[in-house]
Design goal:
- The structure is a homodimer.
- By secondary structure, chain A is of the alpha+beta class.
- Chain A has 2 domains: 109 residues, D-amino Acid Aminotransferase, Chain A, domain 1, CATH 3.30.470.10; 153 residues, D-amino Acid Aminotransferase, subunit A, domain 2 (D-amino Acid Aminotransferase, Chain A, domain 2, Alpha-Beta Barrel).
- Chain A is 28% helix and 30% strand.
- Chain A is built from 8 helices and 16 strands.
- In chain A, strands 8, 9, 10, 11, 12, 13, 14, 15 and 16 form a 9-stranded mixed beta sheet that branches. In chain A, strands 2-1-7-6-4-5 form a 6-stranded antiparallel beta sheet.
- Chain A is globular and about 55 Å long.
- Chain A starts with a strand and ends with a helix.
Chain lengths: 272, 272
């Protein structure tokens, strides 16, 4: 099911700035056991993104109603709910009239059937050649300009590789193509800074809060390739997969370590 | 008139990767006096972009036919023809199946009615705050990830300002929001290097060829803010506007200089 501005629809105007310029934002929400998980956090991030991009989006109540409609339609079927907000439709050229009305697209998709072992035994991961674009003003925002992720994800077809890690121009590792990254190094939990590139993930934020509540030693800082090599534990996370321990990157192997397992338990108990 | 994969249509599938990820390319072509100007060069750039992004676009003949249909429909009316090629439609997630078929969108739009004086007396220009994203692998390509240009262009509403100049992370001036930039400094024609950001424009390439044929001293190099201040002449160019001399940037004024005027004449005589 897809709703565009509240109406069942599977197409959008060619003139929409989402298509013309990638001028918009998105959210990917796990719908499990009848719950759109972390919906409030997703909506808050979406609104923050609209504010940062100057997108005039005022119909949050309508959007919430549309998400509810999609959830009602799904009933007991687990799914992924995707929200796209674009700046709206109209005109040729980068300038956008201030009275432009944002477009809302809410859609449901099958939940990917990842093997259960991904969460228990971990996944194999690679380093991507394609680098993240550096831009201090866009860093953190889940916007629709996703060519970097597309190019990085299409570097491999081997189904045994579950994720690829991406660096930015200075060679620091920032995130996965579809996930955020955490490492455990010297008993400290570390996640890359997102000051120049990367998406500020909902699960990433949740895990930072959990780690701090629990009193784990934690730091956000640049993560180099050698930090990855030296890490005791490594995991990737997002709203759909939760936490996947990394069991190998190319020739280096990692155990599914105690901090990763602890965070999996704490995340599963976290109110959604 | 809009043709999507050859059929008159004003909408596109929500699942198209052009909307989902900005996963595609575009061309903006001036149609004047019954001619789609520099069409061959636009098509060559489009194909080069497809190759760089790994977009499986094989229907060039169909695309040419669709451009001809649009031109026939326009008849004697000057216009802008826009081509969008996306990787195609389908799936959620960054991975794209290799058998995905690229989407072709060809549309016509009114030619903007810029005052004739823009070309003769020059335009007022500003410096934009928003910076271009740095990415060596994407630099030069006219792809659909255009949030940088959108944010920069929407920094001003004053109709007296015709263009904004954008820098990249290191502070060098790379281009305008919708144009390439040339300066004349110490009798040498200079245009910024596009190794880290920017779009390799068709008129830019044409002017480089013209300058070299004519024996003008020419260089592609980084252009700093002080180069802009010290320049004797300055102009911006693209396929729709041709060459606009810059008559002022904020408080600094420039004359419409002899090299700019010479290039305007040579460009107007250049076969299109």
């Amino acid at each position: 099911m897809i709703l565009v501005n509240g109406k069942p629809e599977d197409r959008i105007a060619i003139t929409d700035r989402g298509l013309q310029y990638g001028d918009g934002l998105f959210e990917t929400i796990a719908y499990r056991n009848g719950i759109a998980e972390f919906l409030q956090q997703h909506l808050e991030r979406l609104l923050l993104g609209c504010e940062k991009l100057g997108i005039n989006f005022t119909h949050v109540d309508r959007l919430k109603h549309e998400v509810t409609q999609i959830c009602d339609d799904l009933a007991d079927n687990d799914a992924v709910i995707k929200i796209i907000i674009t700046r709206g439709s109209g005109g040729r050229g980068y300038f956008a009239n201030a009275d432009m009305v944002a477009t809302r697209i809410v859609s449901s998709h099958p939940l990917p059937n990842y093997p259960e072992e991904h969460a228990t035994n971990g996944v194999a991961v690679r380093f991507c050649q394609h680098r993240l674009s550096d831009n201090v003003q866009l860093a953190g925002i889940k916007h629709l300009n996703r060519l970097d992720q597309v190019l990085a994800r299409n570097e491999w077809t081997d189904p045994a590789i579950s994720e690829g890690l991406m660096s930015n121009a200075d060679g620091n590792i920032v995130e996965g193509t579809m996930s955020n990254l955490f490492i455990v190094l010297g008993n400290k939990l570390i996640t890359p800074l997102l000051t120049h590139a990367g998406i500020a993930g909902i699960i990433r934020a949740r895990l930072i809060a959990i780690a701090q509540d629990y009193g784990l030693e934690f730091e956000q800082r640049n993560v180099s390739r050698s930090d990855i090599t030296n890490a005791q534990e490594l995991f990737v996370c997002n709203s759909v997969i939760g936490i996947w321990p990394v069991r190998s990157i190319e020739t280096r192997s990692y155990p599914v370590g105690p901090i990763t397992q602890l965070l999996q338990i704490l995340l599963s108990k976290s109110p959604k």
